[in-house]
Amino acid sequence: MADGDAMNDQEADRLAPELTDDDVYDAMGRLPRYLDITTNDFRALYRLAFAHAVERLVGGLSAKTLMRAELQTLLPEFTLGHAAQVMVRHGL
Prior knowledge:
Oligomer: single chain
Shape: elongated
Radius of gyration: 18 Å
Number of domains: 2
Structural class: mainly alpha
Helix content: 40-55%
Number of strands: 0
Largest sheet: none
């Protein structure tokens, strides 16, 4: 993302997980009612919603917001869950 620019559709597509038809059918099957939408339309809607959510969550962040004076080491063998716990414990 360029400095200060909103995420564009191409960047969002690169970040969004690839959805298969099975993923879409599974998600649609979990809805309490029928959804009349094609899998391609669902994926397009997902990409737009994903881009919006990423921009909402991290669009206003700067490096200054994320920087800390004290370092906390995460080891490569940490699970993602354990790494998240360490980060939360240290206010990151």
